[in-house]
Every structure is written in structure tokens, then in C-alpha cells.
# Entry
Amino acid sequence: MFEKLKNIAWPSELRKSGVLGMNARNYEIIAQSNQRRLYPLVDDKVQTKRLANQIGINTPHLIGVIEVQNEVDRFLDLVKGYDEFVIKPAHGSGGKGVLVIKKYDSTQFITASEKVLGYNEVYQHISNILSGLYSLGGRYDVAVFEEMVHFSNQFQDYSFQGIPDVRVIVYKGFPAMAMMRLATKESGGRANLHQGAVGVGIDIKTGKAIAAVQHNRPIAFHPDTKADLMGLKVPFWREHLEIAVKGFDMTGLGYLGADIVLDKFRGPMMLELNARPGLAIQIANGRGIRNILDNIRDNYPQGLNYNERLDYVLGVEKS
# Structure
């Protein structure tokens, strides 16, 4: 499939092979599935977290928020009693502006990638968040402080320093396609594919790896740990999918991406939802998503609750 995709030149060939392009995603899928009035439910991470907690979706605990500049100098008071924490913009996207602090005192802060920051650097980072440097549209933002996710031993051979996450595309309430993003030395411990992280296509029924890429090229082993990527299997797979499909019930968005992490102590947790998920998941899976979405739209049953939708996709027989 990878070679086939690489050699395709014409849009008609891409469509024939089931590859969803950006324009089709925007105008045929997102515009038809997602009402704009619902976007704030996922664009504001604080609102998303509160809604998720109301319906029992597991998320990292919210420590607090800083909303205005004259509150920035109290950030140490805000995290008092926490040995580690994460700072992120409430309206950020693509992992921009996320700062993970795993150890600190009043003058030095150690990040997840072992970088040492001074007090003024963390202060400036929070100020940059408030100014909208990392937010969608560059608007003024809020700095969110939450608990740090703890690296599960299940993935210790598959990710370099950073916490891997699972992205699940949900369409009309059904999980359609999934991938896992694994941090590398090149990506600086971040699970962002455009920064050099590894994308692993995950079989939607089993949670097992089916393909892997880095910089859009197929690979078989993690570039740093040398682990065999085809040996990867996501534990608690149904629980991961349950979080994703509940995102549909929570927001009403017909097409969304759910980002989920596996915490060592608390199990699968939702990091965020995205109303405009990217298309690199197709490359990670070595196949297009268009035909899958068409099949869900045309043939999947309607009126099911989240458990019934999961049973249908996973092929669980009813007793």
C-alpha cells in the first residue's frame, strides 16, 4: 500500500484508492458533520475536561488555571503540593505550548526531555500562552495546569522519553481508524509526527500494530529503542475506544479525533478532542479512510448507545 500511495499522482487515483484529501475532509466530512456552534466544546481544553468528567471520562486532574498576566507570578503557589505538573494553552492545538515539568524547585525546572529551565523562562512561557502565541487564531488564551501523565511500563520499549498517545478517528459515533504516536529523540520526547515521532497504524478491532511510519516513510523498528513496532499491542483497547466514542456523545461532533494516553496508575485517559483531526493517520495505517467513512455512513446501524456501537465495531456477539 505504501508504494502504491507513493506512486499515485492524480486526484482521481487518490480517490479511487480511498485516500481522503484536505479539501474533501473540510467540505464533505467536517462541514457536513460538525456544527460550528459545537467547536468550543473541544477547542477549550478546560471546558472539554469538565464535560468529560461529568459523563465519567477519565482525564488528567486539573490543578488550576491562570487567566490574566498579573496572576502569572503566583504559578508556584498554584502547583504547591505537586511534585510534577503540565502547563498547556486552553485553546492550543498540535501539542504547541505544552510544557511538562517533572521536577522543580523555586529556581530550576526540569522538563520531560531533561532540559533545565529557570524561573524566568517558565514565567515567560506562561505569559506567551496568555498572549495567544500557541492558540488557535492567535487569540488571548488561558494557561491550564494539570497533573502529569505517568509513563506506562507497557510501552517502555516503544517510546523515547515522552508519553505515547493513541489517536482515534470517530465518525457518526463509531471508531473508524486509529494510530499510536511514539516519541523519538528527534521529536524531543514529543509525540508529534511532524517533529519526527513515529506513527503506528492500529487495527481498530484488536489494538494491534499493522504498519508504522516516520517522516511518512515505512519503518519496522523504533529508531532509538530498536523495538519491533509490529509487536506493539495497545492494552485496555476497548477502554481506549470507549473514551473516543463517548466523545461523540459528549459533544455531538460527527467527525472528531480523540487523543488518549495510558497512565501507569489510572489507566486510559482522554487528553483532548479535536474537531479537525489531521490526515496523517492514513499514512500510518497504509490505507485511506474515505471508504471506511462511506461504509459507516451508508451501512452502520443508527440509534445505538456507545456500548452497542463498540460491540458492533469489535464484532462482539450478543448473548
Notes: DSSP finds eleven helices and 13 strands in the chain. Confidence is low (pLDDT under 50) at residues 1-9. The first strand starts at residue 62 and ends at 66. Residues 237-251 form the longest helix (15 residues).
